Amino acid sequence: MFKSKLRQAVLIMLAMVYSAAADGPAKSHPGNWSRQRAQRPEEQVVRSKTDRAAQGRTFQPDPDMPAFTLPDPLLGADGRRIGTAEEWKTRRRHEILELFRKNVYGRVPDTPYTKSFKVVHQDPQAMGGAATLKQVQITLSRGQASLTISVVLFIPNRAPKPVPAFLLICNRGTENFDPTRERKSEFWPAEEAIARGYAIAAFHNEDVDPDKHDGFKDGAHGLLDAAVRPPDAWGSISAWAWGASRVMDYFETDAGLARDKIAVIGHSRGGKAALWAGAQDERFALVVSNESGCTGASLSRRRFQGKESVARINTAFPHWFCETYKTYNGREDALPVDQHMLIALIAPRAVAVGSAEQDLWADPRGEFLSVVHAGPVYRLFGRQALGPAAMPEIGAALHGDGAHYHIREGKHDLTLRDWQSYLDFADKVFGRVK
Ligand code: GTR
Predict the structure, then answer these.
(1) In this structure, which residue's CA is closest to atom 8 in ligand 1?
(2) What's the CA gap between 279 and 236, in Å, rounded?
(3) pLDDT digits (tens, 9 = 90+) for 303-340
(4) In the CATH hierarchy, which top-level class contains the domain 85-429?
(5) Which pTM does this prediction carry?
(6) Are 245 and 280 within 8 A, CB to CB?
(7) Rounded to an integer, what distance in angstroms lies between the CA atom of residue 307 and that of residue 291?
(8) Is the pLDDT of residue 365 over 80?
(9) Please, which residues have CB within 8 angstroms of residue 130's CB and are 6 or more apart in sequence?
(10) Mutate which of 206, 265, 269 for ligand 1 pocket (most atoms within 8 A of beta carbon)
(11) Letter string b/e over residues 258-280, b meaning 16 or more CB atoms within 10 A of that residue's CB
(12) Cβ atoms of residues 361 and 293 within 8 Å
């Protein structure tokens, strides 16, 4: 009893020291940050799958950047510290969700709409008999206006039902989730998922909202917005996240799918949407961000040359976030949130973040640190997240308690290698392996 209390106290102290150090000026970590932190005694995570090609290389040291301090996810708006999971769930989680709605992603209007699901095509012998294909149309209507999200879903035939499932918010061409399987893509490796006993689904983000700035006339905005959009009206990232939740509405009606084992995954802009979907919609049991970068998994306050900034993303993609977010252009330190708080909103559910070595635009270390700094919130629930871990070697994955991080060689992309890492973690999260 005493021993376990002592151990808990040591863990909390380590976490506090760790947060303080990593929140402080970036320049307080000269040299190789990863190696400095590699020998923490309380390391909880399992190292796995080191790619042969990587040969023990670690991620490059940080470039020079201004010092920064992260907002504390556990400090409530009234100045009181959150000390229990209950306080987090009933108070702080809502405060942080509101901060993200008000300042970053925008708010979904509460306009009423109707919803219908239609299985428009079904093939019980798809993939040479390995899977059942379902093509589902989800139609959202308001008066005479409507939009339809087309979902491609494969469910493994040779697996006990209901099965866990991955839902991809696809921000690349629809050929990446070809229902005929004539075209196969690593971006959505359906055969791999099926062979491993997972259902796999995808929809195209532009079904929900075309990825262009048209003054919010088309897509979900055209359907649901009021005549005058307030400064915290939702942008396209939020619309895509909302679309993922509408697909989840359908999943809940499909007896083949385990509704408590649904993962939402996205790459890059799709990864930003997946995180925001998972932050808001607690039905997603696992949330996967692949190289989501700025206003996805990476910390906004880490500013260095060669990384996407808030000003740059708001200028290049003026339709992605709410208007208020633009007031933070060049003022990241003034944001009431940073992206570790987005990850924290997923707690105690599972989160997986992946980076690519050459993808400096997305800031791999900033993506890793977001997960680390969400740790104190996971610990309220008795989960360790990544624990006091160092960034893994290139090609390695950390499967923590409720959190996963990996970094692979190569460029900005969602590859089979990334998927394998996420499926390995999902196996653990969903109790398919010890
Ligand atoms: C880039 C953008 C990133 C990322 C990426 C993508 O142009 O700057 O934030 O979202 O697009 O979606 O591939």
Answers:
(1) 313
(2) 16
(3) 999 999 999 999 999 999 999 999 999 999 999 999 99
(4) alpha beta
(5) 0.90
(6) yes
(7) 13
(8) yes
(9) 156, 157, 158, 191, 194, 195
(10) 269
(11) bbebbbbbbbbbbbbbbbbbbbb
(12) yes
